[in-house]
Write a structure and sequence with these properties.
Layout (H helix, E strand, L loop, with lengths): L13 E4 L17 E4 L11 E7 L3 E7 L6 E9 L7 E7 L5 E7 L10 E9 L11 E3 L14 E2 L12 E3 L3 E5 L9 E13 L6 E14 L8 E8 L7 E2 L7 E4 L13 E11 L11 E8 L7 E15 L1
Antiparallel strand pairs: 1-2, 3-4, 4-7, 5-6, 5-8, 8-9, 10-13, 11-20, 12-13, 13-19, 14-18, 14-20, 15-16, 15-17, 15-19
Amino acid sequence: MTKAVISGVATGTQYDVKVRARNMAGKYSAMSSISQITVPTKTTAPGNVTSHSATSDPISITIKWTNPSDTDLKGVEIYYSTSSGSGFSLLASVDGVPGTANEFNWNYEDTLSLNQTYYFKLRAVNTSLVAGSYTTEISAQFSTIGTSDVTMNAISGTYSSMVSSVFNSESVTQDAISYSANGTGSDATTLNGYMAALITLGSIDSSVSGFLINANALASKRTVATSKYSYSIVLQKLSGNSWWSTAANSGNYAVFLGAGHATGQGSTDGIQASFATSFIDDATGVTSTSGAQYGLFLWETTETTAAYWVYGGTGLTLTELKR
């Protein structure tokens, strides 16, 4: 007896089948009479969906699960509600291969609600359209961006501009700071100059990978000695350290006042110039801490008591860069 297997049939459906013979020469016999075959409906429910979960972000909810291993599995139905325990409606039917992992992405649109919790339950359905048991509920929501993701949330004391009470005045009192060129404090020396801008950081999250730093100042100095220049530098002081070091990637220092002048400038003339720099500091030693500082410092290699005037510029600004 010869048999043939017809795949892809649906349970509960009647099929009309007839056959004919063919010889080696390719000649066919007449068709047989029609045989009516109905694929029996299976009444046994499929196994349960397992390993179901729901995750979300501001634009989509992703539902994952593992299909039961029933060979007659048709797929999985996903139901949703805005209330736990009631009001569920069919969201999607997803065909699947028995025993494999599957997922469904529900993308946000205007008819849905941000920060609304949606509840989901799933069940498997076989080719006879017999459904298995519902899973336990899982939930997720299309969330708005939290304040912890706002990049400037940990910065305090940032000067967005130089203001008259702080910067538009003459400084006759020098700022003496401890400076370490190697960044360890073992070579710390004293620098006398003027801290033109200072920022103290709040608590910096470990997700911050660095800072975009912008420094700018317009300044004058009444006296610049012959062949001597004033310099500027962006400094970093880590929490717990008593010394300042150069901020990463800022360079050692920059000529700020007196460049190109072979003779000294007296108190009558003075000299004016601007300084500006922009760079990225990698935030090594700053993440997961609080109280680190950045400063824009002006000084001479042989500092005198001559006064500085700082009369403009944007000062010092920091922007967090997250991974």
